[in-house]
Each structure stands twice: as C-alpha cells, then as structure tokens.
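=== Structure Prediction Worksheet ===
Name of assembly: unnamed complex
Input type: mixed (protein and possibly other molecules)
Chain count: two
Listed entries:
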Amino acid sequence: MKILKNDIFIKACKRKPVERTPIWVMRQAGRYLPEYREIRKKYDFLTMCKTPELASEVTIQPVNLINIDAAILFSDILVIPEAMGLELKILENKGPVFLNPVRDKNDFLNLKKINPFKDLKYVLDSITITKNILNGEVPLIGFSGSPWTLLTYMIEGGSSKNFGKVKKLIYDEPDFAHLILDFLADAVTDYLNAKIETGVDAVQIFDTWGGILSPDMFNEFSLNYIKKIISGIKIKDKPVIVFSKGAYFALENIAESGADVIGLDWTSDIGNVRKRIGEKAALQGNLDPAVLYASIDKIRKEASKIIDSFGYGSGHIFNLGHGIHPDTNPDNLKELVRFVKQYSVKYHKSEN
Amino acid sequence: MKILKNDIFIKACKRKPVERTPIWVMRQAGRYLPEYREIRKKYDFLTMCKTPELASEVTIQPVNLINIDAAILFSDILVIPEAMGLELKILENKGPVFLNPVRDKNDFLNLKKINPFKDLKYVLDSITITKNILNGEVPLIGFSGSPWTLLTYMIEGGSSKNFGKVKKLIYDEPDFAHLILDFLADAVTDYLNAKIETGVDAVQIFDTWGGILSPDMFNEFSLNYIKKIISGIKIKDKPVIVFSKGAYFALENIAESGADVIGLDWTSDIGNVRKRIGEKAALQGNLDPAVLYASIDKIRKEASKIIDSFGYGSGHIFNLGHGIHPDTNPDNLKELVRFVKQYSVKYHKSEN
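=== Predicted Assembly ===
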C-alpha cells in the first residue's frame, strides 16, 4: 500500500500533532462544481455511482480543483437498501424514492442479505481505481448511512417531513424495528469492512436523521447499532467518523461509541463541545454551508471563529456542518480551504 | 371580562402553585379529529381561518372532545404576510406556497404595512366569538409566527429543505434582511397587541425555523426580533410563550428574552433544561408527537418520564414537542390528557 503524502487528516482524526487543521467538505464531489455538472449532463446520478470510472473521476475532482485534504468516495447511502432489493429512483427536485418500501414483515423477509464483494462490487472497484489515481496524494474516505437513517428511507419510501411511518414503527412495533435495524447493522458492518479491506483510509457513518429522535429513542434505535458496527470493524487503525446531524443531545454518548471523530452541524459551538467531550474524540465541522453564500470577508470571519473556538492542539478536522449547497460558488470554497490551511497554523505551532 | 373557571394553564405559565400540571397540545384543533375533518370537507383551510364562526367552532372542539386546559385560536402564521400582499395558496401534500415571494427590495417596498384591526379583522372577530362561546371554561391562546420564521416563508416562497434562499439573504445581504425583519417585528407586535386587547389570555410566538441557524445567527436574526416584540406588548400580565423548534443551543438566551414560558421539542430532557434555566421561565412540552402512535401503556410511560423529569412544583405546561400528527388516534390523545392530569398531582401536593 502506498504511503500517504498528505496524512494530516488521518493524524487529526487520531488527535496526533499536525502542522495545521485539515479540511474536507461533505458533498465536495458534487453539483456546485461545473466539472461535475459536465459529467452529470451525460449520466444520471445512479449510473455515476455504479460506474467506477465515473465515480472515481468526480471523487478526485475536488482534490485537484479545491485542494482539500481528503477525498470521499462518490456514492450514495441508499446503495445498500437497493442491493437488498428495494427499487431506487432519484427524482429531480424530489430526491431518492423507493418504489417498494418496507411496509410489513413480508417485505422485510424479502430483503436480500447482501455480500458487498458481489452485490456492491462496483463500489469496491471505484475504491481500487480511485486509490490508484490518487497515488497517495490524500487519504480516501468511504462512507455508509447508519442503520437508523437507512431505515427511515426504507420505511418512508423517501424523504419525509414528519417521519410519521418510521416513528410509528419504532413506537408501535419496536421489536420489528429492532429486527430490521440489526439486519442493517450487519450489512453496514460487512460493507465498511469490505471498503477498508479494499483500501479506504477512513470511514464515515452518516446518521442524517439521528436528530429527529428523543434522547432515549436515539440511544435505543440509532446509537446502539452504530456501536455494533464500530465494534464489528475488523481493521482497527482506520479512523471512524460518526455524524449524527442534529443530535447535539447525544454527543457525550457518541463519544463513548468507539468513534474516533464526531461530526458536528453548525448549531453547536465547537469549543463548548470540545469541553464537554474532553479527550474522548476528535471533532469534525462545523461551518454552516450557507456561509459560502457570503462575501469572502464574512467567510474568513466565520471560519476563523470556528478555528478560534476549537483552540490549540490537534483533534479538529474542518468541515461544513452539512453538505455543500449545489448553488455555491466553487471559488468561495477554494478560498475557505486556502484560509483554513493558513489561519490554523498558529494553533499547532507548539506541537511540532 | 369573564373570570376563568380553569386557570391552571395561566398559573403554571407564571409558575404559581397549581393542583396538577396543565396540558394542551399544538395543532389540537386539527385534522386528527373526525369532527374537524367533517368541517374541512366543506371548506378549504384558508376559508376556515377567515370565517370566524368556523375558526371558533374548530378552536373549541378539543376543549369538549379532549378536555385540554387551554384552547388555541385556529389560524395560520402566514395570515400576516398574506395581509401584507403575498398571495397564499395551501397546496395539498405540499403545504403553503406564496405565489409572489419577496425576492428583491422592490418586492419588499410593495409590502403593505398592516393594521390588524382592519386587515386581520377576521382573526379578532374569531377571538370575540370564541371567548363568548368558551364562557371562561378555559383560557384562549393567540399566536403568531416569529419574524425569522415568517421571513423564511416569504423569501423561499414555501417550505424548504435547505433554506438556501433565505440563508443567502442573511449572509449576503444582512442589512436588507434586518430591514424586513424589523418591519415584520412591528407587524407581529401590533398583531399580538390587537389579539390581547380583543381578549386572548396568552400568546405564543412560533419560531418554527429558529433551529436552522447557528447560535450567533439565531441571536442576530431571530431572537433580537422576538425580544423586540415582547418588549412591545402593552398589556404585561398575559403570558408570552416562545417556541423555537430545534434551538436547544439558545434556551438560556430565550429565557432572558422576557418570555414567560419556553416551548421545548422532544430532543431536550426537560429536567436538564429546568436545571439550566433555573427560575427564569416556565417550560412547555415536550412529548414526541409520534409517541401517540404507540400503545396506551407506552404513552403513559413516556408521559410519566417527562413529568418525573420536570419534578416537583409549578412551571410546567405539558404539551407535545411539535404539532400532533394528522393520523393520530384521538382516543390516544384523550388518554394522554387524562393520564397527565391524574399522574401529575403528586408533584404539586405541597404547593396548595
């Protein structure tokens, strides 16, 4: 395996000394880049996910164009339920939809137990190609949805405003919900193990809908399964990032889950969270993606507030608090990356 | 003015001794009630808002059917921007839409400065009729959207996933955003003053989208204007409730805003919040509306957890953490109300 030329992302995940704060951003391989839109014109989203050459190409775009410190494999969290047999459509302006959502035990029994080396081979092939092209330039992150977040889509059949169906399930039929979540946790564990074996340098678990649960329900229906996944990851030295959007109430518990890094959305003060979580995990975040709509001066000011708030020492990976908005000017992101790299140096001087 | 026969809601708002915890629920006048749906079959939503006899009838339904401790006037937060000149349509399955959203300074200058006694007379007439029919049975709550929440709809033109347009406005043209927010704060102040003069016993400010802002931006673009409204309310002895959904990070600041009561969604532990906020405000909430999908046993268990967590003494108004889901069984709500009234007695014994 190639030695990484730029490994400060990995070091910061492990809270080892670095010369500056690393930065990457969620959805950095995406629609805000004209170079991405050029490819997207020719292929639909799922074709891009499933064609290793295309997935690799857009994965690498922000490395060269934006100078980020880590690439994240272009894919979608819903490839797992799709491989299990749910028919996935991505509708313009409506997002992903499952044509045959899980509505009863029979639907669940019809789900296929997946083997990632066979059923999601295209993802692993994308990793191999991407790692070859990256040639150790920056690390490659692989990701999965959390079982809870996957369950919401599988039950609701798509995005939802109130999540009435999946909440009805967990309150009304908790045992059945646990059955599906356990099945999903096993699949996610196998999937992340396959990704790590194939070559990703870190993994992120996206728990996009963790924040819609009450604290107790979050522990029972989301965090329990994230813990199960983390303890099932075989190669232990690859950093694991857990991002439960909106689950501010659970940060202490997530820090005890075995995760190396906790992702934060922009509603937390990162300095306060650092005080709460102490030395249990590194923190990733947490600029509101909408700040990138502002002037360069404002972008610098908001980014510096986050870096100042985290303060001295390693353990911070700069990121947005959610995916970059598709109508962001890429020059603004480029300036953010340049600024974070330069401004953060002063907080790391004593470490080297 | 009639003396209230049941005033424990008002007393709890002021943290005065009560014999048990009062309860009402957001959207209690709504689609989960077959009696509401009967009327809704004949009239569209906006017609119901604008016809005082119909608005009163559905406002009173849960008083008789569910035995709640306060009525809340059936209306919509968007009647203010509509009265200012924005054309409002309620689309089935899509929610409210403004056909001519505010997109530039010219659109803003075209907004009409409203006089609630003229432009929203139908709301005040509904209050008069409702108060007459209620005949002091329970208090009547009036409400408004917060300026920030109204702004999101006026700029986005409806509900939104990312709130890209309104966030672009506050980051890119903050002065213009402040101009509109100030204009809205004046309108909301006049509107709430008119409601109080006409007879409502308490008011609630719904800041439904406060939680999408970072802590700094929340203070600047939402809370500042909520404070302005509260300080502009002329009759000072009517309780003011502020509910900023998702703004857990701001609860201390909201407690300093002059609000008598702070609404909580279900992602907070009410006992912890009580410790943080101390004796600054009463708390309202905070059962996940989805709990009402569960069995009666589970509903009782979850409700008792909240009452236990708040603990001894007055200052808690039981409510859901958000509006009741339209597909809730009304019998489950009825049982929740019965249970809260009975179970909470033990926490108030020493006060009387």
